[in-house]
Amino acid sequence: LQPNPDHVAMDGGQLTGPWRPVAGRGNWTGTTHFCRAQIKQMMAACERTLRAGSSIMMFPEGTRSKTGALQPFKTGAFELAIRTQVPLLPIVLSGPSDTLPKRGFVLRGRHPISITILDPIPPDQFQDLDAKALTELTRQLFVAHQDEKGDGPPG
User: Fold this and answer.
1) With contact defined as beta carbons under 8 Å apart, do 9 and 16 qualify?
2) Distance between CA atoms of 155 and 116, rounded to whole angstroms?
3) DSSP alpha helices (H): ranges in 11-130?
């Protein structure tokens, strides 16, 4: 089973998905740990995928929070968006830390999880921004959504 290039997820330096590792060192949880060279290869594969017209999914915090609070975003996804001039589609997840805590492998009971798709950010809205500025702009959209909806701990 090979990874579907349309579905790529980064979780704390780990590429995760419903496939066996193609590169990197796997562990019993099914995740694959990547060194810097492999992360560069993954980013290059993501860029090729975007340029071919497919979508990818990246978690900008890089890892799950112990408390569920929004953490600083990494710049990787935003560097890709700028280089490929593709729109960003921010998706806010609220509540998964109650169901599956960081380092957790077993679901904990029933908890509400909210998935909110924010308005897309077209490339013309970030053409004059660098990756750091686009990263912070997008994070602030997440913060504003959480403040407005009362979703999750403060970020």
Assistant:
1) yes
2) 16
3) 36-51, 76-84, 96-99
Indicate the pTM of the whole model: 0.70
24: left (phi over 0), alpha (psi -120 to 50) or beta: left
Q: How far apart are CA 49 and CA 7, in angstroms?
A: 10
For residue range 48-82, what is the model confidence (pLDDT) as tens digits? 999 999 999 998 988 777 777 889 999 999 999 99
Coil, helix or strand at residue 114: strand
Q: What is the mean pLDDT of residues 80-87?
A: 96
Rounded to 5 degrees, what are φ and ψ at 93? -105, 130
Of 6-10, 96-100, 119-123, the least confident: 6-10
DSSP state of 20: -
